[in-house]
Amino acid sequence: MMNTYNQSDKLDWQPLNFRDLATCSLSNVIESKELEQTEVNVLQPDLEIEPKPESEFNTESSELVVTQQTLEQLKQEIETQAYQEGFNLGREAGFDEGKKVGYEQGFLLGQQEGREQIVQQLNDERCKTVHAITDISNNFAQSINDIDELIVPKLFDLALIAAEKTVGSLTKIKQKQLMHTIKILVEQCSILSEPMSLHLNPTDWQWLKPMLNEENLQYKWQLIADPNIEIGGCKVFTDTNEIDTSINNHWQIMSDCVKRDNH
Predict the structure, then answer these.
(1) What pTM value is reported for the model?
(2) Is 231:201 a contact under the CB 8 Å cutoff?
(3) Are 209 and 215 a contacting pair, CB within 8 Å?
């Protein structure tokens, strides 16, 4: 007994396969069909199997061709639709990718252009500032020069006026200076034979007339009191010449000489 059980335990066991059932069922159906056909042939030996008419074959062929054409058309439509969908997806993906790349490139380009623009603006502002400072410096230097050109002559004129007023206010100095001037004129004009007129300020004419009567008769001079002549000055007139020895004329000559020396 023990050996029998042991042998049964050693048998190979396999699980049930549905394919085997399907194969068995199909085989049984085929065998049943064959048996039925055999029985019909045995029972009706003279009955011949009529072939299908040709029209049925043509119809089936036409239906087969139509079916194939329909399948081809469907296939083409499916392929076209799939291509279009793939194209749309690819275009959208490419558009998104291109948009992303374009955005990045545009951002970098805009950033670079912005930096360059800022640098250019800073350079322009710096140049403007430098030019403004240069203009201010040049204007300041020019103003100093203008002040020198204006003030120095004014100071010089003021000094001359002060000296003139100081000298002119001293009566004795004026009289001595006038006498010295007249003597020089007499010496220089003694060679002239034409009559001459000596114009004096009325104040100077009063005290100089007694002193110059003899010389006037000798050299045919004519003393004329002229209120237009300042005190301390005189003018000599002939038919062809005029000699101005007024104090203002002397100071003007001195001023012109000094200014020419400065320039």
Answers:
(1) 0.31
(2) yes
(3) no
Kindly list the domain boundaries of the chain, sorted by start residue: 74-169, 170-262
| 62: CB partners within 8 A, 6+ apart | none
pLDDT over 90, % of the chain: 0
Q: How far apart are CA 94 and CA 98, in angstroms?
A: 6
pLDDT given at position 188: 67
Question: Alpha carbon of 191 to those of 78, 174, 249: distances in Å?
Answer: 142, 27, 25
Tell me which CATH homologous superfamily contains domain 170-262.
ATP synthase, E subunit, C-terminal (3.30.2320.30)
Helices (H), the chain: 2-9, 18-43, 54-168, 171-189, 202-219, 247-262
Question: What are the pLDDT digits (tens) for 131-177?
Answer: 888 888 888 878 777 776 777 666 666 766 666 565 555 556 666 67
Tokens 């004014």 sit at which residue? 154
Please state whether beta strands 221-225 and 196-200 pair in parallel, antiparallel, or not at all (unpaired). parallel
Burial of residue 90 (CB within 10 Å: 0-12, 13-18, 19+) is exposed
- End-to-end alpha-carbon separation of the chain, Å? 157
Residues 223, 226: Cα–Cα separation, whole Å: 9
Q: What are phi and psi of 220, to 5 degrees?
A: 55, 45
How many residues are there in the chain? 263
Q: Express each pLDDT in 1-25 by its tens digit.
A: 444 444 444 444 454 444 444 444 4
Question: What's the CA gap between 69 and 58, in Å, rounded?
Answer: 16
DSSP lists the bridge partners of residue 224 as 199
The residue type found at 12 is D
Assess contact for 178 and 233: CB atoms under 8 A.
Answer: yes
* Percent of the chain clearing pLDDT 70 (strictly above): 48
